[in-house]
Protein backbone atom coordinates (compact mmCIF):
# COMPACT_ATOMS: atom_id res chain seq x y z
CA UNK A 1 0.00 0.00 0.00
CA UNK A 2 1.53 3.32 -1.11
CA UNK A 3 0.41 6.52 0.52
CA UNK A 4 1.50 9.86 -0.98
CA UNK A 5 1.61 12.62 1.57
CA UNK A 6 2.99 15.30 -0.72
CA UNK A 7 4.74 15.51 -4.08
CA UNK A 8 8.08 15.38 -2.31
CA UNK A 9 7.19 12.76 0.34
CA UNK A 10 5.63 9.31 -0.03
CA UNK A 11 5.13 6.44 2.43
CA UNK A 12 4.91 2.78 1.55
CA UNK A 13 3.04 0.36 3.89
CA UNK A 14 2.89 -3.37 3.53
CA UNK A 15 -0.26 -5.13 5.00
CA UNK A 16 -0.40 -8.87 5.22
CA UNK A 17 -3.49 -10.81 3.99
CA UNK A 18 -4.35 -11.83 7.57
CA UNK A 19 -4.41 -8.19 8.61
CA UNK A 20 -6.77 -7.34 5.77
CA UNK A 21 -9.12 -10.22 6.71
CA UNK A 22 -9.15 -9.06 10.34
CA UNK A 23 -9.99 -5.56 9.24
CA UNK A 24 -12.87 -6.88 7.09
CA UNK A 25 -14.24 -8.93 9.99
CA UNK A 26 -14.06 -5.88 12.26
CA UNK A 27 -15.97 -3.85 9.69
CA UNK A 28 -18.68 -6.53 9.38
CA UNK A 29 -18.97 -6.77 13.18
CA UNK A 30 -19.31 -3.03 13.43
CA UNK A 31 -22.06 -3.00 10.80
CA UNK A 32 -23.91 -5.85 12.56
CA UNK A 33 -23.76 -4.04 15.88
CA UNK A 34 -25.06 -0.90 14.25
CA UNK A 35 -27.92 -2.87 12.67
CA UNK A 36 -28.85 -4.47 16.01
CA UNK A 37 -28.74 -1.14 17.77
CA UNK A 38 -31.00 0.27 15.08
CA UNK A 39 -33.51 -2.56 15.53
CA UNK A 40 -33.49 -2.15 19.30
CA UNK A 41 -34.05 1.57 18.89
CA UNK A 42 -36.96 0.91 16.55
CA UNK A 43 -38.50 -1.56 19.03
CA UNK A 44 -38.14 0.93 21.87
CA UNK A 45 -39.69 3.64 19.72
CA UNK A 46 -42.59 1.33 18.81
CA UNK A 47 -43.22 0.42 22.46
CA UNK A 48 -43.01 4.05 23.45
CA UNK A 49 -45.54 4.94 20.76
CA UNK A 50 -47.91 2.22 21.99
CA UNK A 51 -47.54 3.42 25.56
CA UNK A 52 -48.19 6.98 24.49
CA UNK A 53 -51.34 5.86 22.65
CA UNK A 54 -52.55 3.99 25.74
CA UNK A 55 -51.79 6.94 27.97
CA UNK A 56 -53.51 9.23 25.49
CA UNK A 57 -56.67 7.09 25.61
CA UNK A 58 -56.66 7.13 29.40
CA UNK A 59 -56.03 10.85 29.39
CA UNK A 60 -58.91 11.28 26.95
CA UNK A 61 -61.34 9.49 29.28
CA UNK A 62 -60.00 11.42 32.26
CA UNK A 63 -60.39 14.70 30.37
CA UNK A 64 -63.96 13.82 29.49
CA UNK A 65 -64.70 13.12 33.14
CA UNK A 66 -63.11 16.42 34.12
CA UNK A 67 -65.09 18.32 31.48
CA UNK A 68 -68.25 16.65 32.71
CA UNK A 69 -67.30 17.48 36.28
CA UNK A 70 -67.06 21.19 35.58
CA UNK A 71 -70.54 21.23 34.05
CA UNK A 72 -72.61 18.45 35.57
CA UNK A 73 -70.97 17.34 38.82
CA UNK A 74 -73.69 16.66 41.38
CA UNK A 75 -72.32 16.76 44.93
CA UNK A 76 -75.20 14.57 46.09
CA UNK A 77 -73.83 11.60 44.10
CA UNK A 78 -70.66 9.61 44.67
CA UNK A 79 -69.49 10.17 41.09
CA UNK A 80 -70.13 13.90 41.44
CA UNK A 81 -68.04 14.07 44.60
CA UNK A 82 -65.25 12.14 42.91
CA UNK A 83 -65.35 14.49 39.93
CA UNK A 84 -65.18 17.54 42.17
CA UNK A 85 -62.17 16.10 43.98
CA UNK A 86 -60.41 15.34 40.71
CA UNK A 87 -61.07 18.85 39.43
CA UNK A 88 -59.39 20.36 42.51
CA UNK A 89 -55.93 21.99 42.62
CA UNK A 90 -52.93 19.80 41.87
CA UNK A 91 -51.46 20.18 45.34
CA UNK A 92 -54.61 18.66 46.78
CA UNK A 93 -55.16 15.90 44.23
CA UNK A 94 -51.54 14.76 43.86
CA UNK A 95 -51.55 12.27 46.73
CA UNK A 96 -55.05 11.11 45.77
CA UNK A 97 -53.82 10.28 42.29
CA UNK A 98 -50.87 8.36 43.67
CA UNK A 99 -53.27 6.43 45.88
CA UNK A 100 -55.44 5.44 42.91
CA UNK A 101 -58.39 7.63 43.87
CA UNK A 102 -59.31 8.55 40.29
CA UNK A 103 -58.83 5.25 38.48
CA UNK A 104 -61.51 3.78 36.25
CA UNK A 105 -62.24 1.12 38.87
CA UNK A 106 -62.94 3.84 41.46
CA UNK A 107 -65.29 5.62 39.08
CA UNK A 108 -67.09 2.34 38.37
CA UNK A 109 -67.51 1.65 42.08
CA UNK A 110 -68.86 5.17 42.65
CA UNK A 111 -71.27 4.80 39.73
CA UNK A 112 -72.38 1.41 41.06
CA UNK A 113 -73.22 2.95 44.43
CA UNK A 114 -75.25 5.70 42.74
CA UNK A 115 -77.08 3.25 40.48
CA UNK A 116 -77.96 0.98 43.38
CA UNK A 117 -79.52 3.95 45.15
CA UNK A 118 -81.58 4.69 42.03
CA UNK A 119 -82.73 1.05 41.85
CA UNK A 120 -83.53 0.97 45.56
CA UNK A 121 -85.70 4.08 45.37
CA UNK A 122 -87.44 2.87 42.24
CA UNK A 123 -88.31 -0.35 44.03
CA UNK A 124 -90.65 1.66 46.26
CA UNK A 125 -92.76 2.89 43.32
CA UNK A 126 -96.40 2.72 44.41
CA UNK A 127 -97.64 1.34 41.06
CA UNK A 128 -95.60 -1.80 41.61
CA UNK A 129 -97.71 -2.66 44.65
CA UNK A 130 -101.03 -1.15 43.58
CA UNK A 131 -103.63 -3.93 43.13
CA UNK A 132 -104.79 -2.32 39.88
CA UNK A 133 -101.33 -2.59 38.27
CA UNK A 134 -98.33 -4.47 39.68
CA UNK A 135 -100.13 -5.95 42.65
CA UNK A 136 -96.95 -7.14 44.40
CA UNK A 137 -97.50 -8.03 48.06
CA UNK A 138 -95.87 -5.14 49.92
CA UNK A 139 -96.27 -6.84 53.30
CA UNK A 140 -93.62 -9.48 52.52
CA UNK A 141 -89.93 -8.67 52.82
CA UNK A 142 -89.05 -11.27 50.19
CA UNK A 143 -91.24 -9.76 47.47
CA UNK A 144 -90.03 -6.24 48.20
CA UNK A 145 -86.46 -7.49 47.85
CA UNK A 146 -87.26 -9.22 44.56
CA UNK A 147 -88.75 -6.01 43.15
CA UNK A 148 -85.55 -4.10 43.95
CA UNK A 149 -83.58 -7.00 42.51
CA UNK A 150 -85.55 -6.75 39.27
CA UNK A 151 -84.29 -3.20 38.76
CA UNK A 152 -80.70 -4.31 39.41
CA UNK A 153 -81.24 -7.05 36.82
CA UNK A 154 -82.42 -4.41 34.33
CA UNK A 155 -79.15 -2.51 34.82
CA UNK A 156 -77.17 -5.72 34.38
CA UNK A 157 -78.97 -6.48 31.11
CA UNK A 158 -78.29 -2.95 29.85
CA UNK A 159 -74.56 -3.09 30.62
CA UNK A 160 -73.97 -6.67 29.52
CA UNK A 161 -73.12 -5.86 25.86
CA UNK A 162 -70.38 -3.40 26.88
CA UNK A 163 -66.72 -4.47 27.29
CA UNK A 164 -66.26 -6.32 30.55
CA UNK A 165 -63.44 -4.11 31.80
CA UNK A 166 -65.71 -1.06 31.56
CA UNK A 167 -68.58 -2.46 33.66
CA UNK A 168 -67.28 -5.30 35.84
CA UNK A 169 -66.59 -3.21 38.95
CA UNK A 170 -69.82 -1.24 38.48
CA UNK A 171 -72.09 -4.28 38.28
CA UNK A 172 -70.26 -5.92 41.17
CA UNK A 173 -70.85 -2.84 43.34
CA UNK A 174 -74.57 -2.78 42.46
CA UNK A 175 -75.02 -6.42 43.45
CA UNK A 176 -72.91 -6.18 46.60
CA UNK A 177 -75.10 -3.34 47.78
CA UNK A 178 -78.23 -5.27 46.84
CA UNK A 179 -77.13 -8.09 49.17
CA UNK A 180 -75.85 -5.79 51.92
CA UNK A 181 -78.54 -3.10 52.08
CA UNK A 182 -81.68 -4.56 50.52
CA UNK A 183 -80.91 -7.99 51.88
CA UNK A 184 -79.07 -8.26 55.18
CA UNK A 185 -79.39 -4.72 56.56
CA UNK A 186 -83.10 -4.40 55.84
CA UNK A 187 -83.65 -7.87 57.28
CA UNK A 188 -81.94 -6.87 60.54
CA UNK A 189 -83.21 -3.32 60.90
CA UNK A 190 -86.58 -3.66 59.20
CA UNK A 191 -87.60 -7.23 59.97
CA UNK A 192 -85.88 -7.64 63.34
CA UNK A 193 -83.82 -10.70 62.41
CA UNK A 194 -80.68 -11.59 64.32
CA UNK A 195 -77.41 -11.18 62.43
CA UNK A 196 -76.86 -14.94 62.07
CA UNK A 197 -80.41 -15.38 60.78
CA UNK A 198 -79.95 -12.48 58.38
CA UNK A 199 -76.72 -13.97 57.01
CA UNK A 200 -78.47 -17.26 56.34
CA UNK A 201 -81.42 -15.46 54.78
CA UNK A 202 -79.03 -13.41 52.65
CA UNK A 203 -77.67 -16.58 51.03
CA UNK A 204 -81.22 -17.69 50.25
CA UNK A 205 -81.96 -14.30 48.71
CA UNK A 206 -78.83 -14.51 46.56
CA UNK A 207 -79.77 -17.96 45.28
CA UNK A 208 -83.34 -16.88 44.55
CA UNK A 209 -82.20 -13.73 42.74
CA UNK A 210 -79.67 -15.57 40.57
CA UNK A 211 -82.28 -18.20 39.72
CA UNK A 212 -84.81 -15.53 38.79
CA UNK A 213 -82.23 -13.61 36.73
CA UNK A 214 -81.28 -16.72 34.74
CA UNK A 215 -84.93 -17.53 34.09
CA UNK A 216 -85.60 -13.96 32.97
CA UNK A 217 -82.60 -14.12 30.63
CA UNK A 218 -84.07 -17.25 29.06
CA UNK A 219 -87.45 -15.55 28.70
CA UNK A 220 -85.82 -12.69 26.78
CA UNK A 221 -84.85 -15.19 24.07
CA UNK A 222 -88.51 -15.48 23.07
CA UNK A 223 -89.78 -13.44 20.10
CA UNK A 224 -90.36 -9.79 20.94
CA UNK A 225 -93.87 -8.71 21.76
CA UNK A 226 -96.53 -10.95 23.25
CA UNK A 227 -94.49 -14.18 23.50
CA UNK A 228 -91.65 -12.41 25.30
CA UNK A 229 -93.99 -10.64 27.74
CA UNK A 230 -95.82 -13.89 28.47
CA UNK A 231 -92.56 -15.74 29.10
CA UNK A 232 -91.42 -13.00 31.49
CA UNK A 233 -94.79 -13.09 33.25
CA UNK A 234 -94.43 -16.84 33.84
CA UNK A 235 -91.07 -16.28 35.54
CA UNK A 236 -92.48 -13.44 37.64
CA UNK A 237 -95.43 -15.55 38.76
CA UNK A 238 -93.08 -18.15 40.21
CA UNK A 239 -90.53 -15.75 41.71
CA UNK A 240 -92.51 -12.68 42.80
CA UNK A 241 -96.19 -13.55 43.09
CA UNK A 242 -96.06 -17.05 44.57
CA UNK A 243 -96.82 -17.19 48.29
CA UNK A 244 -94.65 -18.91 50.89
CA UNK A 245 -96.18 -22.28 50.00
CA UNK A 246 -95.72 -21.72 46.28
CA UNK A 247 -99.38 -21.02 45.60
CA UNK A 248 -100.37 -18.45 42.99
CA UNK A 249 -103.66 -16.59 43.16
CA UNK A 250 -105.68 -16.17 39.98
CA UNK A 251 -105.53 -12.39 40.30
CA UNK A 252 -101.73 -12.55 40.06
CA UNK A 253 -101.72 -13.42 36.35
CA UNK A 254 -102.75 -9.99 34.99
CA UNK A 255 -100.48 -8.35 37.57
CA UNK A 256 -97.53 -10.45 36.42
CA UNK A 257 -98.24 -9.52 32.80
CA UNK A 258 -98.33 -5.84 33.77
CA UNK A 259 -94.99 -6.22 35.56
CA UNK A 260 -93.53 -7.98 32.51
CA UNK A 261 -94.61 -5.07 30.31
CA UNK A 262 -93.13 -2.70 32.88
CA UNK A 263 -89.76 -4.48 32.62
CA UNK A 264 -89.81 -4.38 28.82
CA UNK A 265 -90.62 -0.66 28.88
CA UNK A 266 -87.68 -0.03 31.20
CA UNK A 267 -85.37 -2.07 28.99
CA UNK A 268 -86.32 0.00 25.94
CA UNK A 269 -85.82 3.22 27.91
CA UNK A 270 -82.41 2.18 29.26
CA UNK A 271 -81.27 1.06 25.81
CA UNK A 272 -81.81 4.62 24.54
CA UNK A 273 -79.63 6.18 27.24
CA UNK A 274 -75.98 6.94 26.29
CA UNK A 275 -73.41 4.47 27.59
CA UNK A 276 -71.23 7.22 29.05
CA UNK A 277 -74.10 8.60 31.10
CA UNK A 278 -74.93 5.22 32.62
CA UNK A 279 -71.25 4.53 33.32
CA UNK A 280 -71.25 7.74 35.35
CA UNK A 281 -74.20 6.49 37.40
CA UNK A 282 -76.82 8.60 35.66
CA UNK A 283 -79.94 6.75 34.59
CA UNK A 284 -83.66 7.39 34.55
CA UNK A 285 -86.73 5.19 34.32
CA UNK A 286 -89.65 5.12 31.93
CA UNK A 287 -93.16 5.87 33.25
CA UNK A 288 -95.03 2.72 34.32
CA UNK A 289 -97.59 1.38 31.84
CA UNK A 290 -101.28 1.97 32.52
CA UNK A 291 -103.17 -0.64 34.55
CA UNK A 292 -104.76 -3.55 32.75
CA UNK A 293 -108.50 -3.06 32.59
CA UNK A 294 -108.97 -6.81 32.82
CA UNK A 295 -106.86 -6.96 35.94
CA UNK A 296 -108.79 -4.16 37.59
CA UNK A 297 -112.12 -5.80 36.71
CA UNK A 298 -110.94 -9.16 38.03
CA UNK A 299 -109.88 -7.64 41.33
CA UNK A 300 -113.17 -5.74 41.52
CA UNK A 301 -115.11 -8.97 41.06
CA UNK A 302 -113.03 -10.66 43.77
CA UNK A 303 -113.59 -7.76 46.15
CA UNK A 304 -117.35 -7.91 45.55
CA UNK A 305 -117.32 -11.66 46.16
CA UNK A 306 -115.44 -11.20 49.43
CA UNK A 307 -117.87 -8.48 50.54
CA UNK A 308 -120.82 -10.71 49.69
CA UNK A 309 -119.30 -13.60 51.61
CA UNK A 310 -118.66 -11.33 54.56
CA UNK A 311 -122.22 -10.02 54.47
CA UNK A 312 -123.57 -13.57 54.44
CA UNK A 313 -121.65 -14.38 57.59
From TrEMBL:
<feature type="domain" description="Ubiquinol-cytochrome c chaperone">
    <location>
        <begin position="141"/>
        <end position="285"/>
    </location>
</feature>
<dbReference type="InterPro" id="IPR007129">
    <property type="entry name" value="Ubiqinol_cyt_c_chaperone_CPB3"/>
</dbReference>
<dbReference type="Pfam" id="PF03981">
    <property type="entry name" value="Ubiq_cyt_C_chap"/>
</dbReference>
<feature type="region of interest" description="Disordered">
    <location>
        <begin position="287"/>
        <end position="313"/>
    </location>
</feature>
<dbReference type="GO" id="GO:0034551">
    <property type="term" value="P:mitochondrial respiratory chain complex III assembly"/>
</dbReference>
<comment type="similarity">
    <text>Belongs to the CBP3 family.</text>
</comment>
<dbReference type="InterPro" id="IPR021150">
    <property type="entry name" value="Ubiq_cyt_c_chap"/>
</dbReference>
<dbReference type="GO" id="GO:0005739">
    <property type="term" value="C:mitochondrion"/>
</dbReference>
<protein>
    <recommendedName>
        <fullName>Ubiquinol-cytochrome c chaperone domain-containing protein</fullName>
    </recommendedName>
</protein>
Amino acid sequence: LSLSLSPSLSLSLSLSPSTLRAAARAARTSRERARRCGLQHMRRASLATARRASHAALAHHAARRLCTATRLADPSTMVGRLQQLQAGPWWRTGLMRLGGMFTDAQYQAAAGEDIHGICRRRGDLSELYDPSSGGVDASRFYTRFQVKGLHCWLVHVRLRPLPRERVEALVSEVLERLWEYDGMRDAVEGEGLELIQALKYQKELQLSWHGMAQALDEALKQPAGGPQAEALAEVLLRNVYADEEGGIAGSAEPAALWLAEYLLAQMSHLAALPDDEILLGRLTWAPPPPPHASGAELRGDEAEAEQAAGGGR
